[in-house]
Amino acid sequence: MQYAKDTSVSTEKSQAEIKKLATKYGASKFAFLEEESRAAIMFEVNRRRVRFVLPLPDRNDDQFWVIPRRFERRSEQGAYQKWEQACRQRWRALALAIKAKLEMVETGIAQFDEEFLNYIVMPDGKTVGEHVLPNVESAYMTGSMPPLLPAIGQTGEGNR
Q: How many Cα atoms occupy the beta-carbon half-sphere of 3 within 13 Å?
């Protein structure tokens, strides 16, 4: 079951809702970026830049062109409507996720950095998640943890 699978809310309305929510909770800067296979939304709250990347469905995917169980192809307009529906669903899901995170922070259940940690953009342009997630996978595959302070190394030379 997909959240908002049959939504009629346009992607533009979902984007406007996200901007309104982020502004309500203190966002001072805002940006939308879009290309064929993904979209991104960025905003800044309390000197923390946040970036969500939303994968967009491939317009040429058979799920949009083939009618299930009938093995017939949809018209170009029919395929476009199915693809657009999938895009609307993803934007609604992202709006819900951001709203939930902001509410968690507002009600004191979580701190901003805790709730948005994976999406906070570091000075090098990568998110915390882009830095950390490869190490998580590696730790589970090898059974060993990377050094806590990799710049110092495992010998503890920096402790003197």
A: 8
